[in-house]
Specification:
CATH topology of the largest domain: ABC transporter transmembrane region fold
Radius of gyration: 36 Å
Distance between the termini: 59 Å
Number of helices: 21
Shape: elongated
Number of domains: 2
Helix content: 55-70%
CATH class of the largest domain: Mainly Alpha
Strand order of the largest sheet: 6-7-8-3-9-10
CATH architecture of the largest domain: Up-down Bundle
Number of strands: 10
C-alpha cells in the first residue's frame, strides 16, 4: 500500500485522465461480467429450449459486449499510458532540476553513471508501472468484483467454496513479494553499475586504447552484465513461482467446484445454465486474478527504483542566501577559513586569512595537494567552509544569493568543459544575449577567431562531446573566450594556459593580461614564469598560506617559493634530484 500511495501521489496532477480511465475501466469490468451472465440464457434458451430468435439476440449481444470492451479498453489503456509518460517526464524533469542544484560535495560523492541511471533506468521503470500495472489494478479488480457478483448471484455456496483457497494463495504470494522487493533492489544496483561502467569507458576510451585494455574492460563488463543477468533471473524465478502457485490453487479450486457443482446438476439441484454461468464467471476470474498477482509483483519491483528516486530528491540542495550582491567594488576577505572534504580527516585548508583588494592579481602556487584549487573553489561557493567566513565587500557569502555571487565570477580551469554544441553556443554560454560583435571580439581576444573561421561551418561548427573534435589548445582558447565574453569583475584562472603550445600561450597570456586589467584575478599556474607579474604571490603548503609577496621578495626570502622556482628553472638542481632516485622526478607544480 505504501508503494501504491506513492504512485498515486505521482499521478495526482493528472487526476482528470485517471477519472476518465477509471470510468472506462468500470465499463470494461461490467462488460467482462456480462459475458459470464450471458452463459445462463445461452445454455437454457439456446441449447436446451432451442429458441432461434434468442440465438440472434444473444449473438448481437456478445458482439456488442466485445466491441464495447475493445473501445473502452482502448481509451482506458491510452489514458493510463499517457499519464504514465507524463509522470515519467515530470520525474526526469524533477530529478535533473534537483541534480543541477545539488552541492559539489554530493556530485563528488556520487558517480555520473549512478545519477544517469536514476534519470533513465529508475524513472523509466515507473512508466511501465503506470502503463501496465496500475491499468491492470483498475480493470482487473473491477472485473473480479463483477464476476464474483455474477457467481454469487448464481450460487453463493459454490462461490464461497471456490474462493476459500484464495487466502492461502495470497499468503504465499505476499511472502514471495517481499523476496522480490529485495531482489529488485539488487537488480537496480547492478544496472546502475553497468551504466557507471559504460559512462567511464566511453569517456576514457583514449586511455583504454592507449594501454591496450580493451579485453580487460570487456571482461569487467561481461562480469557485471552476468551479475545483472543473475539478479534478473532470480526475480524471474520468484515471479514464475507466484504464477505456479496461482496455477496450483486455481486448478485445485476449479476442479473441486466442477466436481461438486456437477453433482448438483446431476441431482437436479441447479440447472445446467446456472452452473455453466457460474463456472464461466469462475473461469473468467482466473485471468484477472493472475494479472493482479503480476501487478503485485510489479509493485514490489517498483519499490527499489521509487526508493532510489526519493533518496536522491531528499538530498539537500545548495544553501542559498537571501541577500543579492549588486556588484564588487572593494575587497574579498578570507577570515580564518578552514575546509575539510567529506570522508577525510585532514583539512584541505587550515585557518586561512587573506585580504584581496579590487584590481589585485593574486597568484597561488604550491605543491600538488597544497590547497590551491580548494581555495578558489570556496569563492564561488562550490564548497562551504567548515570554519571561518568569506566576505565580498563586507558581506558574508553564506548570506548572499548564489546567482548574484556567481554572476560576478568568471572561471577558466584546466578541466575544460565544452558542450556538444556549436562553437557559438559554447562561447556565449555565460552571456546568451551577446551580439555578434561581442562574440567576435571575445574570440579575437582569446586568439580563437582565426582557427574558428577556418572550420567549414565557422562559428556554427559542432565541437563534439567535451570538445572532442578540437585540439587541446583550441578547447582552452574557447574556454577563455567564454570567460572574456562574460566580462566578470572577478576571475579565477586555474591552470588556464596549461593546454597551450608556446606560441598560443604567449598570445593567450597577453589576452588574459588585458582581461585582468582593473579586475581581481586569482591565478593558479603550473609555470612560475607566468605569475611573475602578479601583485602578490601566495605560497600554500598543506592547506596553509606559508609565504606571501612579490616574485623578487619571495626569491630573496629563500623559502619554499625559491625551492619550487629552482626545481623548475635550475637544470643542475633537476639533474641532482634525478640522480638521487631511480624513479624520474615529478615536477611538483
Amino acid at each position: 500500500m505504501k508503494d501504491f500511495k506513492r504512485i498515486l501521489a505521482l499521478v495526482k496532477p493528472y487526476w482528470g485522465r485517471l477519472v476518465v480511465a477509471g470510468v472506462c475501466s468500470v465499463i470494461v469490468s461490467g462488460l467482462n461480467g456480462s459475458l459470464a451472465w450471458l452463459v445462463k440464457p445461452a445454455v437454457d434458451k439456446v441449447f436446451v429450449s432451442r429458441e432461434p430468435t434468442f440465438l440472434i439476440l444473444l449473438s448481437l449481444g456478445v458482439m456488442g459486449a466485445y466491441l464495447g470492451r475493445g473501445v473502452f479498453s482502448f481509451f482506458h489503456s491510452y489514458l493510463m499510458r499517457s499519464a504514465g509518460a507524463k509522470v515519467v517526464r515530470d520525474i526526469r524533469n524533477r530529478l535533473f532540476h534537483h541534480m543541477l542544484y545539488l552541492p559539489m560535495s554530493y556530485l563528488h560523492k556520487d558517480s555520473t553513471g549512478a545519477m544517469v541511471s536514476r534519470v533513465i533506468n529508475d524513472a523509466g521503470f515507473v512508466q511501465g508501472l503506470l502503463s501496465y500495472t496500475i491499468k491492470d489494478i483498475f480493470v482487473e479488480t473491477g472485473t473480479i468484483i463483477v464476476l464474483i457478483g455474477v457467481a454469487t448471484y448464481r450460487r453463493w455456496d459454490l462461490t464461497l467454496l471456490s474462493l476459500i483457497v484464495l487466502p492461502v494463495a495470497f499468503y504465499f504470494v505476499s511472502r514471495l513479494g517481499k523476496r522480490l522487493k529485495r531482489v529488485s533492489r539488487m537488480t537496480q544496483e547492478k544496472i546502475e553499475e553497468i551504466t557507471e561502467m559504460l559512462t567511464e569507458s566511453f569517456s576514457g576510451s583514449k586511455i583504454i586504447k592507449s594501454f591496450c585494455r580493451e579485453e580487460d574492460e570487456m571482461k569487467r563488463f561481461r562480469d557485471r552484465n552476468h551479475d545483472f543477468y543473475r539478479e534478473v533471473m532470480r526475480s524471474q524465478r520468484i515471479i514464475e513461482a507466484t504464477s505456479l502457485m496461482m496455477e496450483f490453487v486455481g486448478g485445485f479450486g476449479i476442479a473441486f467446484v466442477l466436481w461438486y457443482g456437477g453433482n448438483l446438476v446431476i441431482r437436479g439441484a441447479i440447472t445446467a445454465g446456472d452452473f455453466f454461468s457460474f463456472l464461466a464467471a469462475i473461469f473468467l476470474i482466473y485471468t484477472p486474478a493472475r494479472r493482479l498477482v503480476s501487478a503485485n509483483n510489479s509493485l514490489h519491483q517498483a519499490s527499489a527504483p521509487l526508493d532510489r528516486i526519493d533518496k536522491l530528491l531528499d538530498e539537500a540542495k545548495e544553501e542559498d542566501g537571501a541577500v543579492p550582491l549588486e556588484g564588487f567594488t572593494n575587497e574579498i576577505v578570507f577570515d580564518n577559513v578552514s575546509f575539510r572534504y567529506e570522508g577525510t580527516e585532514d583539512d584541505a585548508l587550515n585557518s586561512v586569512s587573506l585580504t584581496v583588494k579590487k584590481g589585485e592579481i593574486i597568484a597561488l602556487v604550491g605543491r600538488s595537494g597544497a590547497g590551491k584549487t580548494t581555495f578558489v573553489d570556496l569563492i564561488p561557493k562550490f564548497f562551504v567552509p567548515v570554519e571561518g567566513r568569506i566576505l565580498v565587500d563586507g558581506v558574508d557569502i553564506s548570506k548572499v544569493t548564489l546567482k548574484s555571487l556567481r554572476s560576478l565570477i568568471g572561471i577558466v580551469s584546466q578541466d575544460i568543459i565544452l558542450f556538444n554544441d556549436t562553437v557559438r553556443a559554447n562561447i556565449i554560454y555565460g552571456k546568451p544575449d551577446a551580439s555578434e560583435e561581442e562574440l567576435f571580439n571575445a574570440a579575437k581576444a582569446a586568439y580563437a577567431h582565426d582557427f574558428i573561421t577556418q572550420f567549414p561551418d565557422g562559428y556554427d561548427t559542432v565541437v563534439g562531446e567535451r570538445g572532442v573534435r578540437l585540439s587541446g589548445g583550441q578547447k582552452q582558447r574557447l574556454s577563455i573566450a567564454r570567460a572574456i565574453l562574460k566580462n566578470p569583475p572577478i576571475l579565477i584562472l586555474d591552470e588556464a594556459t596549461s593546454s597551450l603550445d608556446t606560441a598560443s600561450e604567449i598570445m593567450v597570456q597577453r589576452a588574459l593580461e588585458n582581461l585582468m586589467s582593473d579586475r581581481t584575478a586569482f591565478v593558479i599556474a603550473h609555470r612560475l614564469s607566468t605569475v611573475r607579474r602578479a601583485n602578490r604571490i601566495i605560497v600554500m603548503d598543506k592547506g596553509k598560506v606559508v609565504e606571501s609577496g612579490t616574485h623578487e621578495e619571495l626569491l630573496a626570502a629563500g623559502g619554499i617559493y625559491k625551492k619550487l622556482y629552482s626545481l623548475q628553472f635550475d637544470d643542475a638542481a633537476l639533474e641532482h634530484l634525478a640522480s638521487q632516485s631511480s624513479v624520474p622526478s615529478e615536477r611538483p607544480l
